Amino acid sequence: QARLVESGGGSVQPGGSLRLSCAASRSDIETRYMGWFRQAPGKEREGVAGIDLDGSTTYADSVKGRFTISQDNAENTLYLEMNRLSPEDTAIYYCTALPVPYRAFWALGRFGDWGQGTQVTVSS
Predict the structure, then answer these.
(1) Measuring CA to CA, how many Å separate 50 from each of 41, 75, 76, 79, 107?
(2) Of 85, 30, 42, 41, the residue nearest 62 (C-alpha)
(3) CA separation for the pair 81, 91 (Å, rounded)
(4) Residues near 26 by Cβ (< 8 Å), separated by ≥ 6?
(5) For the residues of 13-39, what is the DSSP string, one character each?
(6) Distance between CA atoms of 16 and 18, rounded to whole angstroms?
(7) Could you read off the pLDDT of 104-122 as tens digits, one per residue?
(8) Separation of alpha carbons 24 and 14, rounded Å
(9) Among 28, 29, 46, 48, fewest CB within 10 Å belongs to which?
């Protein structure tokens, strides 16, 4: 089972930025579709961003143009750069890795492995 450790959450004002990090294993980074999903209080899990083995990325419509997912293979780390944050982005953010052979954005948050999550709060 993957051990994924998120960091980088916090509280920011609307319009601010945060960068989330996820420490993963080399095997996860090299062989599994990885991404981020979030869950706000009283709401269902929502896939935010995914990155495939070839580096291609997929984003939820609600974050396109504001969030960027990337990974550093040398550091075995997944990132989520979040800009122009709004209160609607407030949630716990989870780093996740899908089981092989799943490689699909729709699966983020539905199954696979994820970490303990990191809280992101956007408020004035």
Answers:
(1) 22, 18, 16, 11, 10
(2) 85
(3) 15
(4) 73, 76
(5) -TT--EEEEEE--HHHHHHS-EEEEEE
(6) 7
(7) 999 999 999 999 999 999 9
(8) 30
(9) 46
